[in-house]
């Protein structure tokens, strides 16, 4: 058997194993969450920001937000439109263009685990720049709510969108169902929440939606199979050694590094994984065009990880947290 066929077979085995275990997790962890959910439509959902406009800075009235057409230039292509601020040129405004990607944001304060080295406001890229206002609005709306309630709210936003079919203007060619990036900001804290999202991803695909993907710092405590087979999920790590630990938990990984040693694949001491620098950071390929992170089973079967370079307004704080994580053996306290 050739190496390619072996990797393909391993990928299928991994996916089927996740599918089989997800059924039992759904019964044990997800159904109890559904049983405790309110039967009536929550008032929050009735006045939720559906975010049909692309601007991610639009105010939200709930602890989660659904963006129909992301204007994040890493996720999908955008055009930078000139703006005017008085008599001076303003900051160019990103306007999405096909192929489109949908995305969700949830409250970071309510859902991100303490093990995330970047949860502090000065280290999290979502809490800075263009998404700072949105992140603050979501955190304010989540006060008094549990992480379970926030994720249930997010699931309801996903389910109520495109009930008659997801637009077919996404995918690599712009002729397939729109992909969905979960939690550009935010995370989950337990198996039940992962299962709720896994079921929502299945329904998204059933409505003609494209692939669903996300990243999690909760890989130490949430089983990979809890996410189900319809979400590609990568463990967010800060140390090369954690790529090995995450693999033992069934996760492929995405690692944050201070700098890319090369624009080509490289290796780091502490892991056998081949590490690929994010093409959205090294070239002109967006997530919807690249699609490496949209197939975590393939990353796991091929023993490859994705690297992101510390960037954004909080880069200096990210570097501090990376040093702490490496020195302490885990994420920063």
Report on this model:
This protein has an 8-stranded mixed sheet, with helices on both faces. Strands 2-5 form a two-stranded antiparallel sheet. It has a two-stranded antiparallel ribbon with strand order 3-4. Residues 39-59 have low confidence and may be disordered. It is an alpha/beta fold. Helix 1 (3-36) packs across helix 6. The protein has helices at 3-36, 43-46, 108-111, 132-141, 147-160, 191-206, 240-248, 279-282, 287-290, 296-301, 315-328, and strands spanning 64-67, 78-81, 84-85, 88-89, 93-96, 101-106, 179-185, 212-216, 232-237, 252-257, 274-277, 304-309. It is globular and about 60 Å long.
Defining traits:
11 helices, two-stranded antiparallel sheet, alpha/beta, globular, eight-stranded mixed beta sheet, 333 residues, 36% helix, single chain
């Amino acid at each position: 058997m050739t190496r390619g066929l072996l990797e393909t077979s391993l990928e299928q085995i991994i996916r089927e194993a996740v599918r089989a275990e997800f059924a039992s997790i759904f019964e044990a962890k997800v159904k109890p969450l559904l049983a405790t959910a309110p039967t009536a439509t929550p008032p929050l959902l009735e006045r939720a920001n559906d975010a049909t406009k692309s601007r991610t800075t639009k105010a939200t009235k709930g602890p989660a937000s659904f963006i129909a057409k992301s204007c994040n230039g890493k996720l999908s292509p955008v055009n930078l439109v000139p703006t005017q601020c008085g008599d001076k040129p303003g900051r160019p405004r990103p306007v999405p263009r096909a192929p489109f990607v949908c995305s969700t944001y949830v409250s970071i304060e309510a859902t991100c685990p303490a093990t995330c080295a970047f949860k502090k406001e000065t280290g999290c890229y979502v809490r800075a720049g263009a998404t700072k206002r949105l992140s603050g609005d979501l955190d304010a709306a989540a006060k008094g709510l549990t992480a379970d309630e926030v994720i249930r709210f997010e699931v309801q936003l996903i389910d109520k969108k495109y009930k008659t079919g997801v637009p077919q203007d996404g995918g690599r060619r712009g002729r397939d169902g729109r992909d969905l990036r979960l939690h550009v900001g935010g995370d989950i804290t337990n198996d039940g929440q992962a299962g709720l999202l896994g079921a929502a991803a299945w329904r998204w695909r059933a409505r003609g939606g494209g692939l669903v993907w996300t990243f999690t710092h909760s890989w130490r405590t949430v089983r990979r199979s809890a996410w189900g087979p319809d979400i590609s999920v990568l463990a967010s790590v800060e140390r090369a050694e954690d790529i090995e630990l995450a693999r033992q938990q069934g996760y492929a990984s995405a690692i944050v590094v201070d700098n890319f040693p090369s624009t080509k694949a490289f290796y780091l001491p502490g892991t056998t994984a081949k590490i690929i620098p994010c093409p959205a950071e090294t070239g002109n390929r967006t997530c919807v065009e690249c699609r490496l992170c949209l197939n975590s089973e393939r990353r796991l079967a091929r023993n490859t990880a994705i690297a992101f370079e510390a960037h954004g307004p909080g880069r200096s704080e990210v570097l501090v947290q990376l040093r702490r994580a490496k020195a302490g053996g885990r994420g920063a306290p």
